[in-house]
Design goal:
Blueprint: E1 2-6, E2 14-15, E3 18-19, H1 21-38, E4 42-46, H2 57-72, E5 77-80, H3 87-91, H4 94-97, E6 102-104, E7 113-119, E8 122-128, H5 134-138, H6 149-162, E9 169-175, E10 177-178, E11 196-197, E12 207-211, E13 217-219, E14 221-226, E15 243-252, E16 258-266, E17 273-278, H7 280-283, H8 286-289, E18 297-302, H9 311-316, E19 321-327, H10 330-346, H11 349-361, H12 367-383
Parallel strand pairs: 1-4, 4-5, 5-6, 8-9, 9-12, 10-11, 12-14, 17-18, 18-19
Antiparallel strand pairs: 1-15, 2-3, 7-8, 13-14, 15-16
Helix pairs in contact: 1-2
Length: about 375
């Protein structure tokens, strides 16, 4: 079975107050072209279909056109809601959608719904696990010890496995932050990494199609993968290559797991995000900007020691879509140092240690380490 894994469309997203509707319409059409070319057996959308819980009419229309395009190609669609989506609005009309083979996760009620598709090797069950918070799960599993996001997802998936058919291959759609994944600054974060989910909770699934992180990557296992967003939604993503994850799931092997492989199908945006750095004189020299695509989206950092009068307007006569202008010089670095000192003084010990741990280990603290830190700080207060 071959399927496209996508996530984080973020329809309605604005970048530095610039509307990205044209860019999003363009990339959705390119995805439809890839569907026509590759003829996948399904398209998976792993959450954050919209950028806001109350999407604009324009955003709803854009998603509607995309789903209509997929339905016209007779391609099943499996979708879940993410942390940016409204469960009720995303699930609206799901009963009607099913007739067009568009399967959307309902508002979570304690049960993970699944859709079964068939290929020459038999059945594949696609489980639709929407974005979950511990409080949501506690209401359906009152007897379970749920103190973290890991506890919440593990509890739900353990219940799911008890009724799963062991002869079927299993694919999970989920929208969570898995410990160790590399974030971009366009994603929502929880202080101290409290939203972390340990990869071990996904054991037994032949492939886990994750959403939430915008950089394409595997984490914990090659079978646990973020497809990444189809567009760059932050200048911190400017060096990333966006793509569609094309997953091929084969037959079950001796160890009970299905053979699989992942290919990345590149996606070329209508406008690239580019970061430029240099003096005003350097960046306005024709020899510098002549080779560039001047209709792309730009973030420019000027290194001049003095502010250039009217720099933003003057630079926009060259770089028409200049979204952000900043300075990096002795004055701004001194101001930043003062600001960092002020921020350190206003932050809690938990936040400061979380930053230190992340820098030392390249990952967030897991729930056990967070408990140990809390206990150590509590003992320190008692001793004081």
């Amino acid at each position: 079975m071959r399927f496209f894994h996508l996530s984080d469309l973020h329809l309605g997203k604005r970048l530095h107050e610039y509307s990205l509707r044209e860019d999003q319409a363009d990339i959705l059409e390119k995805i439809l072209q890839a569907v026509r070319r590759e003829r996948p057996d399904a398209v998976l959308l792993s959450g954050d279909l919209y950028d806001k819980t109350m999407p604009s009419a324009e955003s709803v229309q854009l998603l509607n056109l995309f789903l209509e395009g997929l339905a016209a190609e007779h391609c099943p669609v499996l979708a879940i809601y993410g942390n940016h989506d409204s469960p009720e609005r995303t699930a609206y009309g799901s009963g009607l959608f099913r007739k067009a083979r568009i399967y959307v996760s309902p508002v979570f009620d304690g049960i993970v719904r699944y859709v079964t598709l068939e290929d020459s090797f038999g059945a594949v069950d696609f489980y639709l696990l929407p974005f979950l918070k511990p409080a949501t799960v506690r209401s359906f599993f009152p007897d379970a010890a749920i103190e973290s996001y890991t506890d919440a997802v593990r509890t739900v998936l353990e219940a799911t496995r008890r009724t799963a058919d062991p002869t079927h291959r299993k694919v999970l759609l989920a929208h969570q932050f898995v410990t160790g994944a590399l974030r971009s600054d366009s994603e929502e974060t929880v202080v101290g990494g409290l939203d972390n989910v340990d990869a071990s909770v996904f054991e037994g699934f032949d492939y886990v199609a994750l959403g939430h992180i915008h950089r394409p990557q595997s984490t914990g296992s090659e079978r646990i993968r973020y497809s990444g967003s189809p567009l760059k939604y932050s200048f911190s993503e400017s060096e990333q290559e966006k793509s569609i994850s094309l997953v091929t799931l084969g037959e079950q092997q001796a160890d009970g797991m299905a053979a699989f492989k992942v290919e990345e199908l590149p996606l070329t945006p209508l406008h690239e995000l580019r970061c430029l750095r240099g003096s005003y004189e350097e960046l306005t020299a024709r020899s510098f900007y002549a080779p560039l695509s001047l209709e792309d989206y730009y973030r420019i950092t000027l290194t001049d020691e003095s502010d250039v009068p009217g720099a933003l307007q003057r630079l926009r006569t060259i770089y028409h879509n200049l979204m952000e202008l900043a300075y990096d010089n002795r004055r701004t670095r001194a101001r930043m140092a003062l600001g960092q000192q002020s921020r350190v003084e206003s932050r809690t010990p938990e936040e400061l240690f979380a930053d230190f741990f992340r820098g030392q280990n390249g990952r967030e603290m897991n729930p056990l380490e967070q408990k140990m830190l809390a206990q150590a700080l509590a003992e320190r207060e008692v001793d004081a």
